[in-house]
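Researcher: I'd like a candidate sequence for this fold, 70 residues long. If you have to choose between options at a position, lean toward the conservative one.
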């Protein structure tokens, strides 16, 4: 890949913001809760498992963000 003359290659990549990650974590938490509830009601073990895992991961990131670790 070519860069402009004098351009720093480290500065050409997109730097994601915390708002994007925070929004994804909130969306993951809502989606995980929905999958968990729907899987529990339909007795689908895989949906319950992945919904719970997605919810736990999202809640963990949101907790780390709230405590200042993320």
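Model: Candidate sequence:
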């Amino acid at each position: 890949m070519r860069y402009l003359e004098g351009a720093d290659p480290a500065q050409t990549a997109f730097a994601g913001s915390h708002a994007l990650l925070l929004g994804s974590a909130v969306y993951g938490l809502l989606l995980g809760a929905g999958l968990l509830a729907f899987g529990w009601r339909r007795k689908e073990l895989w949906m319950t498992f992945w919904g719970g895992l997605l919810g736990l991961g999202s809640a963990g990131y949101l907790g780390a963000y709230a405590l200042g670790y993320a």
